[in-house]
From TrEMBL:
The lineage of its organism: Bacteria, Pseudomonadati, Pseudomonadota, Alphaproteobacteria, Hyphomicrobiales. Keywords: Plasmid. It comes from Sinorhizobium americanum. This is Uncharacterized protein.
Length: 109
């Protein structure tokens, strides 16, 4: 969980955050679209659930890249912590225990 994904090691934290924000936006758009289709009776609940699962995979992958990213310096550590806190506040979500542990390793730098 502490290694970056192959070529992702060269990608900056800022670029990862931009990708995550784009993935969150795409997920939100897809949820809205699928909600409209479901409300109109255009799709079944099973199709709806499967579609939502697919769109959330991109967001999760982008978020995990940030969680697993090892900051290069103090500025990047603070940026990562701030971003993750903002993400959790905005989504009212929570991280899994292992994700929280990876984020908290930043505090030890």
């Amino acid at each position: 969980m502490t290694e970056d994904f192959g070529m992702e090691a060269a990608v900056s934290l800022e670029a990862m955050m931009e990708r995550h924000i784009a993935a969150l936006s795409a997920t939100s758009d897809a949820v809205r679209e699928w909600d409209e289709r479901r409300a109109a009776g255009g799709v079944s609940n099973v199709v709806y659930a499967n579609a939502l699962l697919e769109v959330t995979k991109g967001e999760e992958a982008a978020r995990l890249r940030i969680v697993e990213h090892q900051p290069r310096d103090d500025r990047e550590s603070k940026l990562k912590l701030t971003y993750m806190a903002a993400y959790l506040f905005a989504t009212r979500g929570a991280l899994k225990d292992e994700e929280m542990a990876a984020v908290m390793l930043v505090v030890d730098l």
